[in-house]
C-alpha cells in the first residue's frame, strides 16, 4: 500500500510538476582488487546507479585500467531528496559464475569526490 501511495505521488510530481527536482552529479574513484587473479580486476565495467524505489537509474558506466583503478562521473535527479548513487560491479573473481557487488550509497556530490578506495572482489 505504501508503495502504491509513493507511486501516485511520483506520478503527481511528474504530470503536475508539484515537486521540484534538482540534478546532482557525482565523481567516484576507486580501485578493484582481485587478490586471487589480477586479470579479474582489469578492464572490468563499473556502473554508477541511483537507488530508486522501483527501478534503479543508470547514471553512467566506465571500465577499470590494467591495475583496477576506475573513475566514473554521473548525474541524476530524484523527485524527493538528492540522488542515492552507488557502484555496481559484476566479476568472476574467485567465482565460477559472474557475481554482482554493490557498494553502499554515498551522498557525495561535486565538488567533492566519492572515494571508494580499494574494493576487494575476492
What does this structure look like?
This protein is mainly beta and 122 residues long. It has a single domain, classed as Immunoglobulin-like. The chain contains 1 helix and 7 strands. The chain has a 4-stranded antiparallel β-sheet with strand order 3-2-5-6, with no helix packed on it. Strands 4-1-7 form a 3-stranded mixed β-sheet, with no helix packed on it. A hairpin with a 6-residue loop joins strand 2 and strand 3. The chain is globular and about 50 Å long. InterPro entries: Transthyretin-like, Transthyretin-like_sf. Residues 1-21 form the signal peptide. Belongs to the nematode transthyretin-like family.
Which short descriptors sum up this protein?
Immunoglobulin-like; 122 residues; 1 helix; mainly beta; single chain; four-stranded antiparallel sheet; 43% strand; 12% helix
Write the layout of secondary structure elements.
Elements: H1 2-16, E1 22-33, E2 45-50, E3 57-63, E4 69-78, E5 85-91, E6 99-102, E7 114-120
Parallel strand pairs: 1-7
Antiparallel strand pairs: 1-4, 2-3, 2-5, 5-6
Spans with pLDDT under 50 lasting ≥5 residues?
Answer: none
CATH architecture descriptor name: Sandwich
Fill in the CATH topology.
Immunoglobulin-like
Look at the structure and give the mean pLDDT.
Answer: 89
| Number of helical segments with 4 or more residues | 1
Helical content (DSSP H or I, runs of 4+):
10-25%
User: Whole-Å distance between the termini?
Assistant: 40 Å
CATH C-level class is: Mainly Beta
The strand order across the widest sheet is: 3-2-5-6
- The H-and-E topology, N to C, reads as HEEEEEEE
Write down the overall geometry.
Answer: globular
Amino acid at each position: 500500500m505504501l508503495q502504491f501511495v509513493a507511486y501516485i505521488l511520483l506520478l503527481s510530481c511528474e504530470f503536475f510538476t508539484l515537486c521540484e527536482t534538482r540534478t546532482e552529479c557525482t565523481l567516484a574513484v576507486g580501485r578493484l582488487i582481485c587478490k586471487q587473479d589480477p586479470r579479474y580486476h582489469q578492464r572490468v565495467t563499473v556502473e554508477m546507479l541511483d537507488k530508486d524505489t522501483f527501478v534503479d537509474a543508470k547514471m553512467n558506466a566506465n571500465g577499470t585500467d590494467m591495475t583496477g583503478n576506475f573513475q566514473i562521473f554521473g548525474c541524476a535527479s530524484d523527485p524527493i531528496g538528492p540522488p542515492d548513487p552507488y557502484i555496481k560491479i559484476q566479476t568472476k573473481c574467485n567465482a565460477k559464475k559472474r557475481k554482482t557487488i554493490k557498494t553502499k550509497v554515498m551522498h557525495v556530490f561535486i565538488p567533492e569526490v566519492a572515494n571508494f578506495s580499494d574494493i576487494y572482489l575476492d
